[in-house]
Amino acid sequence: AQKITQTQPGMFVQEKEAVTLDCTYDTSDPSYGLFWYKQPSSGEMIFLIYQGSYDQQNATEGRYSLNFQKARKSANLVISASQLGDSAMYFCAMREVMDSSYKLIFGSGTRLLVRP
Amino acid sequence: NAGVTQTPKFQVLKTGQSMTLQCAQDMNHEYMSWYRQDPGMGLRLIHYSVGAGITDQGEVPNGYNVSRSTTEDFPLRLLSAAPSQTSVYFCASSYGIRDREVFFGSGTQLSVL
Predict the structure, then answer these.
(1) Backbone angles phi, psi at B84, to 5 degrees
(2) Where are the alpha helices (DSSP H) in B1-113?
(3) B31 near B93, Cβ under 8 Å?
(4) Closest by alpha carbon to B71, among B10, B30, B108, B35?
(5) Alpha-carbon span A23 to A77, nearest angstrom
(6) Residue B73 backbone dihedrals phi, psi, to 5 degrees
(7) Where in B1-113 does DSSP place strands (E)?
(8) Which of A45, A60, A105 is the best substitution to test chain B (most B C-beta atoms within 10 A)?
(9) Model confidence band, residue A99 (pLDDT cutoffs 50, 70, 90)
């Protein structure tokens, strides 16, 4: 069974510092995709970053980068220079492809609080 | 572009009532899906569609019905609401099954009393 694990239910970070949110996954498929979403208190799911299993380089999107360690099956999100607006829930998700469809399997999330 | 639009944003139902959650996208995406989010959990797949006229069940389909008559719309129907269906519902879409981005609507918070 495919599975996503986020072991940090909550984290604090000081404004302007970097923070790493952990995500490990379990799959036997050679082709998969990993996503990170941000869910602020307003409730919407905001796409942050994507990493494909065959991508040669770690994904980066502005202040977000994904530390992809394929052998360890980890896909940690790194947020550099944290801002107060980064306070939110963060979800890691893996795409499981099934024939002509897919589903996203989500972790239980990490609540990040940025301190001023 | 409006992206993925969900309505309503909030809804309160009584047990046994029926309702339809609306989802529309204007990006010509073939793949659309519905998820529910319960407290302290990530999202779980309810139903999905790979194109107009084609739907299938996800991991938690019981109590929900879907149809896809057009590429743009993918409504989710609750035929007889139960308190266990109190949740936040998200609609998502993507052009293909291996897209690098999956777009989500803003969510519908549903309470069943």
Answers:
(1) -65, -10
(2) none
(3) yes
(4) B30
(5) 8
(6) -115, 140
(7) 4-7, 10-13, 19-25, 31-37, 43-51, 54-57, 64-66, 76-78, 87-94, 103-104, 108-112
(8) A45
(9) confident
Report strand pairing: B4-7 vs B19-25: antiparallel
Which runs of consecutive H residues, i.e. helices, occur in chain A? none
pLDDT of residue B96: 84
The string of pLDDT tens digits covering residues A28-65 is 888 899 999 999 999 899 999 999 999 989 999 999 99
CA distances from B42 to A23, A72, A108, B3 (A): 13, 22, 5, 22
What CA–CA distances, in Å, run from B10 to A72, B56, B85?
41, 26, 14
Q: Do A108 and B41 touch (CB under 8 A)?
A: yes
> What does residue A76 show for φ and ψ, rounded to 5 degrees?
-80, 140
Q: How confident is the model at residue B1 (pLDDT cuts 50, 70, 90)?
A: low
Task: Tell me the C-alpha distance between B106 and B109, whole Å.
Answer: 10
Distance from CA of B60 to the nearest CA of A (A): 12
Smallest CA–CA distance, residue B18 to chain A, in Å, is 24
Q: What is the pLDDT of residue B2?
A: 67
Q: What is the full DSSP assignment across B35-54?
A: EEE-TTS-EEEEEEEEETTE
What integer pLDDT is reported at residue A1 of this predicted model? 58
In this prediction, residue A102 carries a pLDDT of 85
